C-alpha cells in the first residue's frame, strides 16, 4: 500500500526536525506551480524541473501567497536559504515522492537564490521617493 503525501511528510519530519511540515507542502505546491508555468510556455510534455526553475517558481509563488510576510513565514518553517530548499527537495527524493535525473544534486540549490534580493527588496521603500513634511 502506498503512503499518502501526509504520511510521507510525517515520516520525514520525525527523522529531520529542521523544517516544518508546511514547508514540504508549500514546496510541493511550488513544484506544481513551476511545472504548470513551464507547460504553458512550451508544447513539450517533458516536465523535469531543474533547481533554478524550481527556485524561480518557489520565489514567484511565495511572493504571491505571502507578500511582505514571506520571510517571516519561511523562517517560521525553518527555511532561510535556497540550501534549505535543496535539503527539503532531496528529503522528498529520498522518500520517493520526487524524482531526479542523474545530473541533479543537492548542491544545485547552494546559493541558487538570494533570499534578501528575492523576498525583501520587493518590499523595501525608496527613501528618496518619500514625501517630505
Kindly summarize this structure in a few lines.
The chain is mainly alpha-helical.
Question: What is the fold's blueprint, element by element?
Answer:
Elements lengths: L4 H11 L5 H21 L9 H16 L3 H8 L4 H13 L20 H6 L13
Description:
- With 133 residues, the protein is mostly helical.
- It has one domain (22-120).
- Helices cover 56% and strands 0% of the residues.
- It contains six helices and no strands.
- It has helices at residues 5-15, 21-41, 51-66, 70-77, 82-94, 115-120.
- Helix 2 crosses helix 3.
- It is globular and about 55 Å long.
What descriptive keywords fit this protein?
0% strand, globular, 133 residues, 6 helices, mainly alpha
Radius of gyration, CA atoms, in whole angstroms: 17 Å
Identify the overall geometry.
Answer: globular
Q: How far apart lie the N and C ends?
A: 68 Å
Helix content: 55-70%
Order of helices and strands: HHHHHH
Sketch the major β-sheet. Answer: none
Strand % is under 5%
The oligomerization state is single chain
Category from helices, strands and their pairing: mainly alpha
Total number of distinct structural domains = 1
Total helix count? 6
> How many beta-strand runs?
0
Which spans have pLDDT < 50 for at least 5 consecutive residues?
Answer: none
Amino acid at each position: 500500500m502506498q503512503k499518502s503525501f501526509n504520511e510521507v511528510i510525517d515520516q520525514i519530519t520525525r527523522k529531520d526536525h529542521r523544517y516544518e511540515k508546511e514547508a514540504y507542502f508549500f514546496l510541493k505546491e511550488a513544484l506544481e506551480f513551476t511545472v504548470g508555468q513551464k507547460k504553458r510556455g512550451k508544447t513539450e510534455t517533458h516536465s523535469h524541473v531543474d533547481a533554478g526553475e524550481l527556485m524561480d517558481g518557489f520565489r514567484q509563488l511565495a511572493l504571491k501567497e505571502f507578500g511582505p510576510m514571506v520571510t517571516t513565514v519561511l523562517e517560521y518553517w525553518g527555511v532561510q536559504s535556497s540550501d534549505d530548499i535543496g535539503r527539503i527537495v532531496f528529503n522528498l527524493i529520498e522518500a520517493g515522492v520526487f524524482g531526479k535525473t542523474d545530473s541533479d544534486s543537492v548542491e544545485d540549490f547552494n546559493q541558487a537564490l538570494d533570499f534578501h534580493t528575492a523576498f525583501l527588496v520587493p518590499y523595501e521603500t525608496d527613501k528618496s521617493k518619500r514625501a517630505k513634511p
